Each structure stands twice: as C-alpha cells, then as structure tokens.
Amino acid sequence: MAVLVTGGAGYIGSHTVAALVERGEEIVVIDNLQQGHREAVIGGKLYVGDLRDADVLDTVFKENNIDAVIHFAANSLVGESMKLPGKYYHNNVYGTLCLLEKMNEYNVKKIVFSSTAATYGEPENVPIDELDRTVPTNAYGETKLAMEKMMKWFDTAHGIKFVSLRYFNAAGAHESGRIGEDHAPETHLVPIVLQAALGQRPHISVFGDDYGTPDGTCIRDYIHVSDLADAHVLAVDRLRGGADSAVYNLGNGQGFSVKEVIEIARKVTSREIPMIIEPRRAGDPAVLVASSSRARNELGWNPKRNQLEDIIRSAWTWHQANPGGYSAKD
Ligand code: UFG
C-alpha cells in the first residue's frame, strides 16, 4: 500500500516524505509546485498537479494503491491571508473538499492533516491545550479550522478517519543536508534571520515590540521539522491501527520571543545580524506555546531535537550550503 502526500514537495511535506521513505513506505506525492520544489522530493513518485483538478486526482488514485493520505497542500502565510483571503479559501478549503470527495469515491478512509496553532487565535491558556477555544485571528487559521471541521463531517458521514496535527512554528532542516526551508517569498522568522546573517538582507525587521510580553516581541514555540515529520509517521500508524479521529498539538512547550530567536541566531552564526523595530504585522497573536502532552501520550511522539540552538544550527547548515535555495541548483 502507498501513502499519498499532498504538498509533499513543500517544506514540512518533503521532510515527512523523507521520514516515510526512510522506513520503507511507498510514497506518492501530488504537488502543484506553486511553493514546492521538485528536488525536495527524495524517494517519492511525484505527480505535478492541483487538488482542484479532478482528472489529476483520478489519475493518482487509479494508478496507485493508496491506503492513507497526508494532506499538506495549502497556502500558509498569515500576513498574505489577511490581504488575499479568497486565495486561501479557494486553495485550502475548496482543495480539501476536492480531496475528501475523491478519497470517498476511491474508498480511502485515512487522512493525516497538516493543521496549525493559528486555529486558536489569541489563546485563553498558555500553554494551549487541544480543547481550548478556536477563534482564529487571521484568515489562514480560519481556513485550516474550516478544513478540520470538514474532515469531522466526512468522518461522521463516510467514516474517513483523520488525525489533525496543529503545528506551532516549524524550523530547521534535515540532518542529511539534502532538504531544508526555501519559500519564495520568505516570510518566516528563522530563515529571514539567517538570510540577514548571510548578508542577503540588510537587517531583520522585528514586527512590533509593544506586545504584552517580557521584551515586547511575540513569543512562539519552535519545533524541528524532522520532529514534525516523525509525528506524521506515528499518526499514519495510529490510523492504520484502527484509531478514531483526533486532534494533536505539536510543539516543544517552550516559548521564545523574536528578540531571543535573533540573539540565539547571533550566537549560532557568530554574525552580527542587524535588527530594526517595525510596526506590528496584522493577524499576529502575542504568544503561541503548545501543550503537546496528548501527542506524547497517545501518539508516542517524543521530539528529539528540542533545543532552539540546535534547531537554528541545522537551519544554518542548510542555508550556508544552499544560499540561493533549491532553485540555485536548477
Ligand atoms: N517576525 C518578525 N519579522 C520577520 C518575520 C517574522 O518579527 O521578518 C515575527 C512575526 O511577527 C511573529 C514571529 O516572528 O511574531 C514568527 O513569525 P513567522 O512568520 O515565522 O511565523 P508565524 O508565527 O506567523 O506563523 C507560523 C506559520 C503558520 C503557523 C504558525 C503557528 O507560518 O503557518 O506559525 O504558530 F500557523
């Protein structure tokens, strides 16, 4: 049996494909390469196409013996989603509807879903528990919540079991050095800080230092991308074992401010990394930190690369070796 990975050429998708291939799984990837990179798919069979294209999905499901899907394919930028919500509803929500309908048609009843801490909005508790309220502060988080709810009703009606993994802030790169983070445009804090360290940017802009946090900058919970990948493998196992649908947070349970991330990056890189303070970015909650005890207890998940210094060091290794990202090798 094969696992279909949608968005498997993207950052977290490609690391999950690598983890699945490492344990001998047959992998099929569908990716429209809007954000993904062909070179990032190591070991899987790649179909270039869009989930909203019924012909592509028919081909993928007919040509392969798929028993489970891991669904990453989506737009995922908080800032962009506040300017272009329609793009997020179309690609994320409608794309997921197309996928679930085809899964039902082809009798594929297991899906692991790439969800996000952005489903919570401003948290009512820190760390955040899966049962806490979900009131997204940005359109991106709203679409991911809508996708989760859609899965719930497809489970009720059609018995499609899902595991939704709500990630906090993914960072770092694969230990092989072959895959890492490369978005265009790049908007995430860790790669931008490292681009500044490499001199590719004049400075890092800090979006707001007037939040109600100790140093005034936003606090996030950074998790190594390969630890996230491991959780997907465990979630597939859990569904194959006949478990019911569930939602899990994935984070380290420890928060770091934007200024602290920059400070650690200065230490790791031994570079100056100039910083300027700019206005807040729309849609950013002040603090997002996970309680991942449910994932640890029920999935048996045990993040191994949990020191932020090590996470940033692995990203730094990738950025130094691939200063232009994947495209530079084309
Ligand atoms: N930040 C800056 N300057 C930058 C980039 C980011 O100050 O140049 C700040 C942001 O304002 C935020 C923090 O750094 O406070 C982290 O920002 P990222 O863009 O790296 O990450 P987000 O927390 O906005 O979002 C990420 C993913 C989402 C996911 C979310 C969950 O992009 O998909 O984590 O926490 F939903």
TrEMBL record:
Domain of life: Bacteria
Reaction catalyzed: UDP-alpha-D-glucose = UDP-alpha-D-galactose
Molecular functions (GO terms): UDP-glucose 4-epimerase activity
Stored InterPro entries: Epimerase_deHydtase, NAD(P)-bd_dom_sf, UDP_G4E
Cofactor(s) needed by this chain: NAD(+)
Segments traversing the membrane: none
EC numbers: 5.1.3.2
Keywords from the named record: Carbohydrate metabolism, Galactose metabolism, Isomerase, NAD
Signal peptide as annotated in the record: none
Matches recorded under Pfam families: Epimerase
Biological or metabolic pathway of the protein: Carbohydrate metabolism; galactose metabolism
Xref: SUPFAM superfamilies: NAD(P)-binding Rossmann-fold domains (SSF51735)
Complexes and interactors: Homodimer.
Family indicated by similarity: Belongs to the NAD(P)-dependent epimerase/dehydratase family.
Name the UniProt record assigns to this protein: UDP-glucose 4-epimerase
Record organism: Paenibacillus abyssi
Annotated gene: galE
